[in-house]
Every structure is written in C-alpha cells, then in structure tokens.
Design goal:
There is one protein chain. This protein has 301 residues and is of the alpha+beta class. Helix content is 32%, strand content 22%. A five-stranded antiparallel beta sheet has the order 7-6-5-8-9, covered by helices on one side. A four-stranded antiparallel beta sheet has the order 1-4-2-3. The chain is globular, with a radius of gyration of 19 Å.
Length: 301
C-alpha cells in the first residue's frame, strides 16, 4: 500500500511517524505518554501502572541496568546465555561487522542468516541464499536497519548506547517433513516464571501466532500482534517443552519481565533472543481484560 494512502486511511500513524522523527527533544516520560495515547487511544497511567502494557512503559522509565544493553544485542547476548545454559543452545556466529562493505561473502556458506545486532521485529533479518538472494536489496534492507534507533523511536532504554552492527549466523533448516515451517517459541516470564508461550510460525512467507498456557492449552485471547492470524495447523506441544521452560527460568533472572525466545528443531533447542518490551508495550489484547490480568502477574515492587 502506498504510504500516503496508508496515512490517509490511518492518520494517527502519520502523527506517530512525525513524533518518532521529530520528537527527539521530548523527555522520555512525556514522549511515552504521547506515543501510548496514539497507539492505544488510552491515557497512560504510571502512578501506579496497572495493566501489562502500562507496566512495560513504567519499566522503560524506571528499570535501567547496564547489563540490559548487552542482553538486547543479538551478538553479545550469546556469551551471557552460553555462560548460563551452555553453548550447545547457541546458534553459531559466522561473523560480525560494522558495515556491509566489510563482509566477505566468499567466506560464507551457501545459505546463512544476516541480521543487524540492534534492531527488532525482523526488520533487519535476511535469510541469504547465494543462488537466489539479491544482494542489492539485502544491502538496502540492512542499511535501513543500521540507521534505525529503537531508543529514539520507542524509548526502550537498553538500546540507547547499543552499537549497530551486522551479524551472520548459521541457517537453521526446518525439517522437510514438518507439518509447519520454522517455529519460534517465545516464553513470557513474569518475575522469573514463564506464564504463557507465544508460538510464531513462519510458513510460505507468512507469520502466524498462537498463544498457549504452560499446559499447552490455547489461550482465550489474541495478541499481542492481532495482524497475525492463527497457524493453519495448530502447533503441537513440543516434547521438550519442560526443558525450554527450565532454560527460560535460568535466563529470566535480570528483570521483572523478560521474554525468552527459542527455536526448536528436531528436538534440539536453540536460543533466539531476550526481549524486555514485547511490541514495545503497545500490544493489543483481545479481549483487553487480559491486559489487566497479566498486569496483575507482573509484580514491580
């Protein structure tokens, strides 16, 4: 969709884009109140915060530890995670570079993953296959991602001092006889305890999301990304779910809330990333009573 048409249909996103581009001078607290209103249509209550999303905004402003910058960097987090749960869960890194021009593609395998170490939401991720991937479009995507500043646009403090870089990783191949594509298991940990799992299925160029409790029953709400529907085939409970939960508990020791992500292929678990603010605290619960329900589970004091 043409961007102009998109902004005409949804003018509040035009205001959000203006704020993100021109609001660098606005103090964090006021900026987040403005952004929260634009995204959700609601007043942001921080004294005290009640809902899950409100508490994530409170954490942005009040919980700022230097280790968080290390943990959101997709390269440096690997050393921390391997020191806690072992390097057998780490996807091998093939190289890290400051800019695209430094990458020697001849030294990389036929297929691999390129990603920026500081960006989120898959915006800086390219599955690169030398037989078919266009290097010009890859460079364009990575250059755009390198310029993106999550602290500036969303005031996620851990990204304020992060250094944008490019990393190549080994490609994790889904099983050929799998009913679904590669699945990403995101465990939402409240005060160190996993409460539910968001399964993101990547299949045929589409992303689907299903939510399960820890007994693997589908949850009675959708979120936090309502634009993604349910997977055509409901994800089955992984046989090693208990092990993923155990690993998440070992890793979720740094903050009041952490989302710990894993891939799980042929019974082998791979660490994905650590996220402190899913959907940057602007996620949509349907019905929205679950925003308050999970807010009650997140103890700040």
């Amino acid at each position: 969709m043409n961007k102009l048409v998109y902004y005409i249909i949804k003018p509040h996103f035009f205001v959000i884009a203006l704020l993100e581009r021109l609001g660098g001078w606005v103090p964090d607290g006021l900026y987040l109140r403005m952004l929260y209103l634009l995204h959700t249509g609601r007043i942001l209550h921080l004294d005290p915060p009640v809902t899950f999303n409100e508490k994530l905004q409170w954490l942005k402003l009040n919980d700022r530890k230097p280790i968080y910058t290390t943990l959101v960097d997709k390269s440096t987090v690997k050393d921390v995670v391997s020191g806690i749960i072992g390097d057998q869960y780490i996807i091998p890194t093939l190289g890290v570079w400051d800019c695209i021009e430094d990458i020697n593609f001849d030294m990389l395998p036929q297929k691999f993953v390129l990603k920026t170490t500081h960006d989120g939401g898959g915006s800086g991720v390219v599955i690169f296959d030398k037989r078919e991937t266009d290097i010009q479009s890859t460079n364009s995507k990575l250059e755009k991602s390198l310029k993106h500043n999550i602290y500036k646009t969303l005031r996620e403090w851990p990204y304020k001092e992060i250094k944008p870089r490019i990393m190549a990783e080994q490609y994790i191949q889904p099983l050929e006889d799998s009913e679904t594509g590669l699945q990403d298991y995101k465990l939402f940990c409240f005060n160190g305890k996993p409460e539910f799992c968001q399964v993101k299925t990547h299949e045929n160029g589409n992303d689907y999301i299903d939510l399960f409790d820890m007994d693997w029953s589908l949850l009675p709400f959708t979120g936090l990304n309502p634009q993604h529907g349910h997977a055509p085939i409901t994800p089955r409970k992984p046989e090693n779910l208990d092990r993923m939960v155990e690993l998440a508990q070992k890793l979720a020791v740094y903050a009041k809330f952490e989302r710990i992500d894993f891939y799980n292929v042929a019974g082998r678990i791979y660490f994905g990333e650590i996220t402190f603010y899913p959907v940057s605290g602007f996620g949509e619960f349907t019905p929205d009573v679950y925003d308050k329900y999970y807010g009650e589970k997140l103890i700040l004091f």
